[in-house]
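Students often ask why inverse folding is considered easier than folding. One informal answer: many sequences map to the same fold, so there is more than one right answer. In these notes we will look at a single instance of the problem. The structure comes first.
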C-alpha cells in the first residue's frame, strides 16, 4: 500500500463525503474488509479523485449519473450529499437526472429523483 496516496485519498474522501460519514464507515473495518477499505482510499479517493485534471464538482456530476444508472441507492445518497458539498446545484442535479432518465432508463431516474428529494428535505430540515 502506498501510504502517501492512501492518506491523500482519506483526506479527499472526508472532504467530499463528510468526516462523520467516513468515520462511520471506518469504524466497521475488520480483518475481512480492511484490504478493501485501504484499496478504496488509495485508488478510488487518492489516485483518481486526487487527480487535478478534473475539478471535484465535475467528478461529482459524473458520479451522480453513473451511480444513478447503476441503481446503487446507498452510494447515490452519499455522493449526492458530496456533490452538494462540491458545489453542484440542485438545478444541475435535476438536469443530470433528466439525462439519466434518457440514457440510463426511467426506473433509475425515478429512484434517483425520490432519493434526491429525500436528501434535500433532510438538508432543509423538513425530513
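Output (designed amino acids):
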Amino acid at each position: 500500500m502506498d501510504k502517501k496516496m492512501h492518506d491523500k485519498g482519506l483526506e479527499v474522501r472526508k472532504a467530499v463525503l463528510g468526516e462523520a460519514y467516513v468515520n462511520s464507515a471506518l469504524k466497521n473495518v475488520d480483518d475481512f474488509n480492511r484490504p478493501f477499505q485501504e484499496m478504496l482510499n488509495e485508488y478510488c479517493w487518492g489516485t483518481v479523485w486526487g487527480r487535478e485534471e478534473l475539478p471535484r464538482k465535475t467528478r461529482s456530476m459524473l458520479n451522480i449519473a453513473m451511480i444513478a444508472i447503476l441503481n446503487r441507492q446507498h452510494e447515490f445518497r452519499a455522493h449526492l450529499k458530496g456533490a452538494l458539498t462540491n458545489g453542484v446545484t440542485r438545478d444541475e442535479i435535476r438536469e443530470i437526472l433528466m439525462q439519466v432518465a434518457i440514457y440510463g432508463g426511467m426506473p433509475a431516474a425515478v429512484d434517483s429523483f425520490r432519493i434526491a428529494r429525500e436528501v434535500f428535505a433532510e438538508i432543509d430540515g423538513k425530513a
